[in-house]
Amino acid sequence: MAADPKPDWLCCLPSSWSYGVTRDGRIFFINEEAKSTTWLHPVTGEAVITGHRKTPDLPTGWEEGYTFEGARCFINRTRDRTE
Protein backbone atom coordinates (compact mmCIF):
# COMPACT_ATOMS: atom_id res chain seq x y z
CA MET A 1 0.00 0.00 0.00
CA ALA A 2 1.45 3.37 -1.00
CA ALA A 3 1.95 6.08 1.58
CA ASP A 4 -0.29 9.14 1.57
CA PRO A 5 1.50 11.78 -0.54
CA LYS A 6 0.17 14.49 1.80
CA PRO A 7 1.24 14.16 5.43
CA ASP A 8 -1.36 14.90 8.14
CA TRP A 9 0.14 18.27 9.01
CA LEU A 10 -0.22 19.44 5.41
CA CYS A 11 -3.81 18.25 4.99
CA CYS A 12 -5.05 20.29 7.95
CA LEU A 13 -3.47 23.66 7.08
CA PRO A 14 -6.01 26.51 7.11
CA SER A 15 -6.67 28.06 3.69
CA SER A 16 -4.70 31.24 4.37
CA TRP A 17 -1.57 29.28 5.36
CA SER A 18 1.22 27.69 3.34
CA TYR A 19 4.57 26.21 4.29
CA GLY A 20 8.23 26.43 3.39
CA VAL A 21 11.35 24.36 4.01
CA THR A 22 14.64 25.85 5.14
CA ARG A 23 17.93 24.86 3.58
CA ASP A 24 18.58 22.50 6.51
CA GLY A 25 15.20 20.78 6.15
CA ARG A 26 13.14 22.49 8.85
CA ILE A 27 9.51 23.15 7.99
CA PHE A 28 7.99 26.55 8.76
CA PHE A 29 4.51 27.94 8.22
CA ILE A 30 3.50 31.13 6.42
CA ASN A 31 0.37 33.10 7.31
CA GLU A 32 -0.43 34.80 4.00
CA GLU A 33 -3.01 37.15 5.55
CA ALA A 34 -0.84 38.40 8.42
CA LYS A 35 2.38 38.23 6.36
CA SER A 36 4.11 36.32 9.16
CA THR A 37 5.91 33.02 9.69
CA THR A 38 6.21 30.54 12.54
CA TRP A 39 7.88 27.22 13.31
CA LEU A 40 4.65 26.01 14.94
CA HIS A 41 1.78 24.45 13.00
CA PRO A 42 -1.20 26.86 13.06
CA VAL A 43 -3.66 24.14 14.13
CA THR A 44 -1.64 21.80 16.36
CA GLY A 45 0.73 24.40 17.81
CA GLU A 46 3.62 21.96 17.41
CA ALA A 47 6.74 22.01 15.26
CA VAL A 48 6.96 19.49 12.43
CA ILE A 49 9.89 17.12 12.85
CA THR A 50 11.50 16.21 9.52
CA GLY A 51 14.16 13.83 10.80
CA HIS A 52 17.08 15.52 9.02
CA ARG A 53 20.27 15.46 11.02
CA LYS A 54 23.98 15.89 10.58
CA THR A 55 26.14 13.09 11.95
CA PRO A 56 29.91 12.96 12.43
CA ASP A 57 30.22 9.74 10.42
CA LEU A 58 28.92 11.35 7.22
CA PRO A 59 31.14 13.31 4.82
CA THR A 60 31.12 17.11 5.06
CA GLY A 61 27.96 18.55 3.54
CA TRP A 62 25.87 15.38 3.94
CA GLU A 63 22.88 14.80 6.23
CA GLU A 64 20.81 11.75 7.06
CA GLY A 65 17.07 12.17 6.63
CA TYR A 66 13.78 10.35 6.41
CA THR A 67 11.03 10.87 3.88
CA PHE A 68 7.43 11.39 4.98
CA GLU A 69 6.89 7.72 4.16
CA GLY A 70 9.68 6.74 6.59
CA ALA A 71 12.35 5.76 4.05
CA ARG A 72 15.93 6.61 5.02
CA CYS A 73 17.76 8.92 2.64
CA PHE A 74 20.96 10.96 2.49
CA ILE A 75 21.01 14.63 1.57
CA ASN A 76 24.01 16.08 -0.24
CA ARG A 77 23.94 19.77 0.71
CA THR A 78 26.97 20.49 -1.46
CA ARG A 79 24.84 19.69 -4.54
CA ASP A 80 21.36 20.25 -3.02
CA ARG A 81 20.05 16.84 -3.93
CA THR A 82 18.81 13.70 -2.17
CA GLU A 83 20.40 10.33 -2.84
TrEMBL record:
It comes from the Eukaryota. This is Pleckstrin y domain-containing A member 5. It comes from Ilyodon furcidens (goldbreast splitfin). It holds the Pfam family WW. The gene is PLEKHA5_2. CDD domains: WW. InterPro entries: WW_dom (IPR001202), WW_dom_sf (IPR036020). Residues 13-44 form the WW domain. Coiled coil: none annotated.
